[in-house]
């Protein structure tokens, strides 16, 4: 199961209590106050890891509780600090603070080990039915998993951090400071204090982890356009391929390798439908994964196997991208005409070029590896150029500073 959005509850460890104690030894019957300090509570730390590709670990363990600090002891013994809780997340994870806390059950801090797991409220379960097959059940289960972790935009608070680089860390919740023992309050006028400080509570809160895949190339198109077939042809990824829409329900990542050891990551985004910018068909869950791509590939079914015309698909895709995020138009785009092995595809390609002028189109037949090698070459050139432009922009900003 692929999970790219999940609610969590994080609580750092509480600081240990300071001790109230007095030294009593044979040679020192009135040794004075000797209460030790409490230990510091552990932090909850997020760390980006490029070996992970989704948030499934946090989906099954949404309560992140760090260890409490130990209480101080007699004879001036300080308590041990609580261990930090290090949580690894995929690169490209955004952390949002949630404004509401209705879906989290917080138990007594003294009994966190026996506490019940976090309950996530689910909305209406979407169902996509295909009569006469078990596909409806499969799609419904995948949609339930996506819907159960979905968070409406009005519930989000501010963006806390964006973990994009491998090894990057962020302290999500800071542990509480340990209390001081009574030995710290002894003065000439008050030589036997009978009080100590309690430990400070650790920070806690509800957060949303949202994954936006970091890839070089994003494949965008309507369902059944052949995106998974193309990904299989250019990489060793093996997504499910079938002759019906919505075969791909979660983003798929493929690695394109070249003879000189150069590598590109390609993200196959599930098929978009009209109204995706309004989150129709979980459109936002799919569209956000192309925001970080260096270039976009608009894949069109030039054979019109589903009854839609390719020029209409092209205009609708541009419309959905622009309404979702106008900055996507700034990315380099490559228009690819797939399924050119079909007899009607040649005629449709001519009509497409007449209707959509000044738009270069690359004809391919991914199922038969026709034009695939040229496609690999073009995406590499576009990505390298995009990287050079980004580096030049960064250098220009640094010079201005």
What does this structure look like?
The structure is a single chain. This protein has 401 residues and is α/β, with parallel strands linked by helices. It has two domains: 5-211, GTP1/OBG domain (Spo0b-associated Gtp-binding Protein, Chain: A, Distorted Sandwich), CATH 2.70.210.12; 217-400, Rossmann fold (3-Layer(aba) Sandwich). The protein contains seven helices and 14 strands. A six-stranded mixed β-sheet has the order 10-11-9-12-13-14, with helices on both faces. Strands 3-1-8-5-6 form a five-stranded mixed β-sheet, with no helix packed on it. Strands 4-2-7 form a three-stranded mixed β-sheet, with no helix packed on it. α6 links the parallel β13 and β14. The model is unreliable at 101-154 (pLDDT under 50).
Offer a quick outline of the entry.
The protein is α/β, with parallel strands linked by helices and 401 residues long.
Measured between the Cα atoms of the first and last residue, the distance is 45 Å
Write the CATH architecture name of the largest domain.
Answer: Distorted Sandwich
Rg, Cα atoms, Å: 28 Å
What is the overall shape?
elongated
Q: Round the mean pLDDT to the nearest integer and report it.
A: 82
What structural class do you assign from the helix and strand content?
A: alpha/beta
Helix % is 10-25%
Please give the number of β-strands. Answer: 14
Number of helices: 7
Domain count, please report it: 2
The CATH superfamily of the largest domain is identified as: GTP1/OBG domain
Low-pLDDT windows of residues: 101-154
| CATH fold name of the largest domain | Spo0b-associated Gtp-binding Protein, Chain: A
Question: What is the CATH class of the largest domain?
Answer: Mainly Beta
Largest sheet: 6 strands, mixed
Kindly report the spatial arrangement of strands forming the biggest sheet: 10-11-9-12-13-14
Order of helices and strands: EEHEEEHEEEEHEEHEHEHEH
Strand content: 15-25%
């Amino acid at each position: 199961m692929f999970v790219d959005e999940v609610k969590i509850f994080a609580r750092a460890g509480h600081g240990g209590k300071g001790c109230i104690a007095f030294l009593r030894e044979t040679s020192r019957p009135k040794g004075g106050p000797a209460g030790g300090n409490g230990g510091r509570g552990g932090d909850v730390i997020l760390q980006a890891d490029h070996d992970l590709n989704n948030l499934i670990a946090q989906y099954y363990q949404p309560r992140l509780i760090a260890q409490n600090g130990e209480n101080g002891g007699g004879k001036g013994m300080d308590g041990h600090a609580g261990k930090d809780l290090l949580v690894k997340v995929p690169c490209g994870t955004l952390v949002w603070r949630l404004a509401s806390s209705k879906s989290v059950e917080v138990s007594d801090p003294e009994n966190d080990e026996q506490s019940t797991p976090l309950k996530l409220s689910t909305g209406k379960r979407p169902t996509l039915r295909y009569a006469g097959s078990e596909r409806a059940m499969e799609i419904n289960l995948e949609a339930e998993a996506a819907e159960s972790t979905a968070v409406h935009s009005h519930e989000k608070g501010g963006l806390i951090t964006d973990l994009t680089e491998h090894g990057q860390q962020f302290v999500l919740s800071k542990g509480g400071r340990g209390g001081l023992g009574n030995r710290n309050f002894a003065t000439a006028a008050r030589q036997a204090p009978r009080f100590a400080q309690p430990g400070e509570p650790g920070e806690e809160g509800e957060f949303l982890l949202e994954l936006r895949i970091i890839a070089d190339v994003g494949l965008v198109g309507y369902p059944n356009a052949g995106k998974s077939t193309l990904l299989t042809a250019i990489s060793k990824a093996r997504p499910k391929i079938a002759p019906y829409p919505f075969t791909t329900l979660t983003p798929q990542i493929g690695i394109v390798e070249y003879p000189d050891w150069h590598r590109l990551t390609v993200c196959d985004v599930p098929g978009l439908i009209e109204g995706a910018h309004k989150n129709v068909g979980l459109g936002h869950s799919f569209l956000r994964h192309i925001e970080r791509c260096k270039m976009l590939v608009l894949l069109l079914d030039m054979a019109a196997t589903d009854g839609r015309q390719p020029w209409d698909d092209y205009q609708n895709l541009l419309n959905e991208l622009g309404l979702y995020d106008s900055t996507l138009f700034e990315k380099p785009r490559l228009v690819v005409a797939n399924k050119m092995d079909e007899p009607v595809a040649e005629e449709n390609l001519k009509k497409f070029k007449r209707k959509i002028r000044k738009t270069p189109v690359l004809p391919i037949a991914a199922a038969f590896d026709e034009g695939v090698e040229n496609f690999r070459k073009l995406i590499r050139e576009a990505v390298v150029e995009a990287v050079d432009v980004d580096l030049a922009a960064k250098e220009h900003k640094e010079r201005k500073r």
